[in-house]
Amino acid sequence: MSIDEYGGGQAQGSDILVVTTNDAPGFRVDRVIGEVFGLTVRSRHLGSQIGAGLKSMVGGELKGLTKTLVQTRNQAMERLVEQAKARGANAVLMMRFDVTEAADVGTEVCAYGTAVVLVPADAP
């Protein structure tokens, strides 16, 4: 598996800074816009469920499910960034993921945080 199949995060060159911290060093919050989130629900296809069931008997990583979850988290993050940008933010602070089962048919992934406008700390 390549790094893109089992890892993720914000794309290089994004005009929205997304951090899991309360602040961003070198910047101050000029305006708080409010909560934003990106949500997606993915179902698992029959083939991956059967493969995961068999693999769980012998142990080891469920690579197909790992890949699906990475794609799902990345999609939720992209939607979070779109929401922040649409509301006039240039950053999202305190970003988190929430993952739950959705009615036994799939996995719900929500990326959420606080949309803000950051300015350099030394700006008037």
Written overview of the protein:
This is UPF0145 protein SAMN05216267_100149. InterPro entries: UPF0145_dom_sf, UPF0145_YbjQ-like. The protein is an alpha+beta fold and 124 residues long. The chain has a single domain (3-120), classed as Hypothetical protein apc22750. Chain B (Translation Initiation Factor IF3). Helix content is 33%, strand content 37%. It has 3 helices and 4 strands, in the order αββααββ. It has a 4-stranded mixed beta sheet with strand order 1-3-4-2. Strand 3 and strand 4 form a beta hairpin. The protein starts with a helix and ends with a strand. The mean pLDDT is 85.
Low-confidence stretches: none
The oligomeric state is single chain
What is the architecture at the second tier of CATH? 2-Layer Sandwich
* CATH secondary-structure class: Alpha Beta
How many domains make up the coordinates? 1
Shape: elongated
Fraction of residues in H or I helices:
25-40%
Annotated CATH topology: Translation Initiation Factor IF3
Rg for CA atoms = 17 Å
Structural class comes to alpha+beta
**Count of DSSP H/I helices:** 3
Q: State which percent range the strand residues make up.
A: 35-45%
- Biggest sheet: strand arrangement: 1-3-4-2
Q: Name the average pLDDT.
A: 85
CATH superfamily, please?
Answer: Hypothetical protein apc22750. Chain B
Distance between the ends: 48 Å
